[in-house]
Amino acid sequence: MITSADGTTVRVHSIGAGPGLVVVHGAMQSGTSQLELARLLADTRTVHLLDRRGRDRSVTGPQTPIEVADLRAVLAQTGAHDVLGISSGAIVAARAALAGDEVRRLALFEPPLPVGGSMRLDVLPRFEAALDSGDLARAMAIAMRVAEMGPPWMFRLPTALLAAAARRMLAADDRAPATEGRVPVRELAHALRADFAIVRENADRLEELAAIGVPTLLLVGTATRPYLRTAVDRLTEVVPGARRVELVGLHHAATQNRAERGRPDLVAPVLREFFAV
């Protein structure tokens, strides 16, 4: 457990030996969503898998500075200086690189940075209203539309059908046995409020990341959503000296465990090369 600046404790799962690498997960994930990736890097790195704090109702005000403070606390208390940020966690990682000198090398996987209306942020009030009313399934359905989660045919379905599918998912997950490291879907779905807050707070502010002054790797799958490719393309232009690598045939789940549709075996070699000591 790591204590952040405001006294909140955040959990970190550490594996391996060698210089530290902190992994900041994305939406609908926990730290152990990247456990298989960590194991593939653990022969030369100590990989710290950060569980981002419970993010639905516990925080008021801007979310980004709070999560940046959490990450900086983890870096300070583990002595790590390398960071891999994934999706919304990549936004946190990029902002941490601007906030202090703890980050010395930075890898960003498909940060959902809105550029000129590339994301449907206008429907977020409907998402928040559904959460506030207790209709978690409807909130998840709206979230699928905003983030374009899943295969393209899915988020084109009517919201009512998506909500029905989400209710079945929640019911099945509620019946699933508790296992170590497993975070209930219900909890992850509530945490979407904070993920979307980070996205909204950083909309059309991509040029600010031009001040990143550390070696930066930008990762994007060739099968991912267009708005994510747009963000990475713009970052490649903005961040000085950034290296862009395409992961052929991979989508937004690429870094996750195989059971979560990831391909950590294809991601690990790129990270190993970039973070080589």
Q: What's a concise summary of this model?
A:
The protein contains eleven helices and eight strands.
Mean pLDDT: 92
SSE run: EEEHEHEHEHHHHHHEHEH
The total count of helices amounts to 11
Low-pLDDT segments, ≥5 res: none
Largest sheet: 8 strands, mixed
State the strand order across the main sheet: 1-2-4-3-5-6-7-8
What value does the Rg take, in angstroms? 18 Å
Percent of residues in β-strands: 15-25%
Oligomer status: single chain
CATH superfamily of the largest domain: Alpha/Beta hydrolase fold, catalytic domain
Number of strands: 8
Name the CATH class of the largest domain.
Alpha Beta
Total domain count = 2
Report how far the terminal alpha carbons are from each other: 27 Å
Fold-level CATH name of the largest domain: Rossmann fold
Structural class: alpha/beta
Task: State the helicity in percent bands.
Answer: 40-55%
Shape from CA axes? globular
Task: Outline the structure in words.
The protein is α/β, with parallel strands linked by helices and 277 residues long. It folds into two domains: 2-116 and 201-274, Alpha/Beta hydrolase fold, catalytic domain (Rossmann fold, 3-Layer(aba) Sandwich); 121-197, no CATH class. The chain has helices at residues 35-41, 64-78, 88-99, 124-132, 136-147, 152-155, 159-175, 185-190, 192-201, 226-238, 264-274; strands at residues 2-3, 9-16, 20-24, 46-51, 82-86, 105-109, 216-221, 243-247. Strands 1-2-4-3-5-6-7-8 form an eight-stranded mixed beta sheet, with helices on both faces. Helix 10 (226-238) links the parallel strand 7 and strand 8 (243-247). Helix 1 packs across helix 11, helix 3 packs across helix 9 and helix 4 packs antiparallel against helix 5. The longest helix is centred in the middle third of the chain and has 17 residues, at 159-175. The two termini are 27 Å apart. InterPro entries: AB_hydrolase_1 (IPR000073), AB_hydrolase_fold (IPR029058). It comes from Cellulomonas phragmiteti.
